[in-house]
Write a structure and sequence with these properties.
P-loop_NTPase; AAA family ATPase; 42% helix; alpha/beta; Rossmann fold; 8 strands; single chain
Length: 278
Amino acid sequence: MSSAEQETINGVVISFFSTASSVGKTLIGINMAAELARQGARVVLVDYDLQFGDVCNYLQLEPEQTLMDAQRSIQLTGSSFDVRECLTPYSCRNIMFAVLAAPRKLEESYNIKTSVAQKVIEQLQGLFDYVIVDTTSMFSELNLMLLDISTIVTYLGVVDFLPTIKNMKIGSDTLRTLGYDSEKIRLVLNRSNAKTRISSEDVQKLLKQEFYYVLPNDFQAASQSIIDGKPLVLEHQDIELSDAIRGLVGLYSNRSLGGVEEPARREHKSSLLGRLFG
C-alpha cells in the first residue's frame, strides 16, 4: 500500500466494553469482525483485555507477535515502527481479518503503556477500514483512552442476575457523567431470551435509557463456535443469533459513524497479505 493511499484511510474504531465479565464481548466482537470482513472491508481485531484476553483462544490462533512485541518495537524503532509486523492473520471460509494479540504473560500486561496502546490503534486506523477492540471490564486508564478515541463503543450487558445489572447501572451512570455522547455509546443487550426473572423493560427503566440493540441467546451455538474456533456468522449463517449480529453490523456500517464516513469498499486481493493490507 502506498503512503498516499494510507493517508486516505481513517478507520472506524468500534470498542466492546462492559462492567461485568462473561457478557459476550469477545464472541460478539469476533463475529462483528468476521461479518465486516465478509462484506469486503479490511478489518483488524485487537485484544486489549491485556491480562485475560481470549480472542486468540476463541479463534485457535498461536500468534508469533503480541502487543508486548509491538511496544518493544516502538521503543526500539520509534517512528519507523510498522504494526503490521505484529499482526496474526485469521482465515475461515476464505474470509480473512487480522488480529493483534494480547500479551502472552500476565506480568507483561502491567508493562503496557497506554500511550503505546493508543499509537497502535492510530496506526491501525491508517491501515484498516474497521478496528474492532475487545476490552476488559473496568474503567482503567487504558479503557478510558479507548472510550475517548473510539468511533463507537458497544456497551454490552446481560440481565441474568442483580449484581450484573448493578454494575451495568454504575457503568451507564459513569459514562453519562464523563460526558460521552449517547450516539457514541451503544447499549446492547446480549442473551435477551435467556431464562431469567428479570425483564429487560425493568432494566431499561433502571438505566433510564433504552437498549440500542438486542441480541438473542443461543448458548449451544455460541459454545460450539468457540470449540470449533470459527465465527458463527461464517459457520452457522442461518441461526437467529447470526442474523441478529448481521443486523447490528448493518446499523454500524451503513451510515456515517460519529463523523467518520463508512470506508469505501475495495476489490478483493488474491493473497492473504493483499486481502488484509490492500
